[in-house]
TrEMBL record:
GO terms for molecular function: sigma factor antagonist activity. The lineage of its organism: Bacteria, Pseudomonadati, Bacteroidota, Cytophagia, Cytophagales. It comes from Dyadobacter jejuensis. This is Ferric-dicitrate binding protein FerR (Iron transport regulator). Residues 285-349 form the Protein FecR C-terminal domain. Residues 141-235 form the FecR protein domain. It comes from the Bacteria. The chain crosses the membrane at residues 116-134. Pfam families: FecR, FecR_C. The keyword Ubl conjugation does not apply.
Amino acid sequence: MGKGTKFVLIDLKRLLRNMGISKDLVIRFFKNNCSPQEERELTNWLAESDENIQRALRWVESLSDEDEKLFLKLMLSSGEVWEKASESMDQDLPGDKVMAKEKPFRGYILGHMRRYAAIFIAFVVLSATLLFYYKLNYIHIATGYGEIKNIELPDGSKVVLNGNSKLHYSLLHGGFNREVWLEGEGFFDISHTTDHRKFKVFTESGKTIEVLGTEFTVLERSDISRVVLQSGSIKLSIPETEDLMMQPGDLVEISGNQLHTAQEPEKVRVDPETYSSWTTGKWKLEGTSLQELLQKVESCYGVQVTVDDKALLERRVSGSIPLTDIGSDTLLQDIADLFQLKLIRNDRELILSK
């Protein structure tokens, strides 16, 4: 086979690889959603030339999400990393050409080993850069079981985070964009800004809560999703349903199978303080069932309690239970006393009985 034919084959292989590289593949690659084969192909393609990196940057520019765009651009703009990887892949070690002539197969293997080693080193450096970037620009706040934490956001808004909950937000573009993500339960007291910028809360189930200045409680657990408005107004966006406008005293709750369907939830009128009383160190109860209380205990304190008679779960009480400076043991005993039940400890099992 002639030299010219060899160059044609190399260019043809490169052309075929380029044809398989798409915008979708680039975005999926940096979101860690590629197969191992796709990762190898795209890694080789990016390391081939600055032109390929520039093409990937143009694809990133077309994204609508500004934060995602900035993040991916940072990954791709680490030109020095890719340049070093590319140089390392293209350069031969002294004696390689002679060795390749004497032992072609061995030279081929060593060349590919250097190539993939360089790619691996590039990714290690890039990953460290990205980790540092994330720590600088993304704030993550979490509470343990039974812990309540008061948080003041950069815009002056306040959040009270209940036990076993997480809140995170971004400081990209040199400031706070009034967008937060919640897992668990939080009470929000949102400050109004002079430029009337909206505040958004995103939840794991896909809900978006949009406000200007208001107070509300959000609960987002695996089995239930709830929003209760205390003051102001809210536009609640739920996937595959029409937006809901909420007024003070409105409750919107999605539970069980509704979490995975497009069924439109209904607004219910309630006393908002019943759902935010935990922020003042107590649980306010208004016809609250034992089942609801035990679910709260498990979600916020990580303690599971059973009953020896399922009918007990339907019992309801009104009143309040103090939460300040007490552990789950005292709380469980208070619940047992309130419902006139016995708390039985059987090894590691906790049981409520008549």
